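User: Can you help me understand a structure? I only have the sequence.
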Amino acid sequence: MSALGPQLKRLGRHSVVYGLGGLVSRVLAVLLLPLYTHYLSTSDYGEVEILIAAMAVLTILLRFGISNAFFRFYFDSPDPARRTTVLRTSFWFTMTMATSGLIVGVILAPQISRLLLNDENGANLVRAAFVGLWAQMNFEQLTSLFRVEERSTAFVLASLANILITVGATLVLVVSLHKGPMGVVVGNFIGTLAVYLALLGYRREQLGLEFNRGLFRAMNRFGMPLVPSALFLWVTNFADRFILSKLVDTSEVGLYSVGVKIASAMILLLTAFRTAWPAFAYSIDSEDEAKSTYGFVLTYLVLLSTWVATALALLSPWLVHWLSAPKFASASRVVGPLAFSTVAFAGYIVIAIGVGRARRTQFNWVVSGLAAIVNIGLCFALIPSQGMMGAAIATVAAYVVMFLGMTWWAQQVYPVPYQWRRVVTAAGVGVALVVVGKLAGTGLALSAALVVCYPIALAVAGFYLPAERQRLRALVARS
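Assistant: Let's start by predicting it. Here is the structure, written out as tokens:
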């Protein structure tokens, strides 16, 4: 394990830096919840969430998998000229597709509004969402370059500038100018657009007029199979909102979305990791070293994500009470299931990298497609009687299926010695603590105590390796 130390420290260092940027983003997002819940009706908030979900699926379609291929092909050669060609080809393709999507969205805004919001009067809101789509696609393409360069600090600075401008603009538009949902949508893209324009100037020498068709075809062969996979993943992430809207109403979507926002504290950890992970994982040259590293990364990520999910599940009633208006109190019921669904997704992210490393992405869509079918089927079966809790249960089931399916496929094409006993123990102990807490009807103090006890419960369950126990004892002794 000592040989893995430098690799794990490198991943940890970049993840921490990315996490600092994500921390500010998540804290501000949570702090904006009282703003949204006081200045928007549950229906208004539901409309914003539906548009965000729709823009997410369009982003997947318009990218054609080029963002995934960018990370894989950038590390194919250490030659700076070749890497610049990869960047330029990706940049101009993304720019072309984003602009095409914006033009179509502006023209068809009334029809899109009627389809998504059941109201043609939301056409301008739809147009604003498409401007945000254009800005976000191009912004993410340029900031991806910081990630492959392992310049995590520069990436975070760009992200923080985006966040701060966005928050300021949103406060002015929603609170001072009373623009409602339009203020939220416009406020969310102002910062992205401003920082993107600054990055264009910063990267101007690298962004020449070059588009390598042969390279693009190769990148397309790698990335295209990931498009249906990403679409099915979007279905698993967002279809529940649309089904809730149709089977119940947008108010239920608004309540559910608050639960999603609280559970998205998990995304802080996961976003930091996902941002650092592809460049780190592909940069390891030795196959033996890569496989050994991947095994430990899965174990530690499941441990950390389960601990956070346990905290969110046990503390959800108080978190929702502190962060939203009283009319959103029932949203706390879905926080726990949604948080634990992210644990399964975290495992999926680690294991899927093996498929990318082996360049065997053709089967990914089957795995994510099966998960989407499970999600939709359970949503239609459970939502009529269970409402948003049915949607949360469907999400958990879908992510577990996706994790298991990807594990089977990845082990066929790129077998890795994962530490399955420890992975199951880490997740199982967290679930057990939540069950104990919910059955006991604990108060805040006892719920917090159960959260703190998670690493102790892992020791009782025999999770730690001898070297880990020795380090923990030394850490306790020093403290």
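Now, to help you interpret it: The mean pLDDT is 84. DSSP finds 20 helices and no strands in the chain. Let me know which part you'd like to focus on.
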